[in-house]
Write a structure and sequence with these properties.
The protein has 133 residues and is of the alpha+beta class. The protein is built from 5 helices and 3 strands. InterPro entries: Pep_chain_release_fac_I.
Length: 133
């Protein structure tokens, strides 16, 4: 993943934000929409593209566009910074490879403790039975 190339491939669109905010909401386009074309990206190799398309398929449209929005702040510039940061965090998380699990054996002490507990439980249950004369 080449972050410099990816940053140059990002497309932004400013839209009027919804919700409370008085007259400012009606005048200023502070909401930012980030659009990223996964299929034609030069900053990702083919394996990374396939991984993103499977892991982020709920966020990717039919045209292979990853669309993110941000309207947290009243400032367009702050929203742009937030959405860029969120975009790269999302890519890092999606492309992160999980650690391979190493199988381990139970320890000798743990096995002995388990057997002792089973014996103790068996003795308690045996004590509940009626005596047969």
């Amino acid at each position: 993943m080449k972050t410099e190339i990816l940053a140059s491939e990002l497309n932004f669109k400013a839209v009027r934000s919804s919700g409370a905010g008085g007259q400012n909401v009606n005048k200023v386009s502070s909401k930012i929409v980030l659009i990223f074309d996964v299929a034609t990206s030069l900053g990702l190799d083919e394996e990374e593209k396939r991984t993103l398309q499977t892991k982020l398929k709920s966020k990717i449209s039919q045209e292979n566009l990853l669309i993110l929005t941000c309207d947290e702040d009243r400032s367009q510039l702050k929203n742009k910074r937030i959405i860029i940061k969120r975009f790269f965090e999302m890519l890092d998380k999606a492309l992160e490879k999980p650690k391979k699990r190493i199988a381990t054996k139970t320890t000798k002490g743990a096995n002995e403790k388990r057997i002792q507990e089973k014996k103790k439980a068996g003795e308690i249950k045996a004590g509940r039975r009626k005596l047969d004369f």
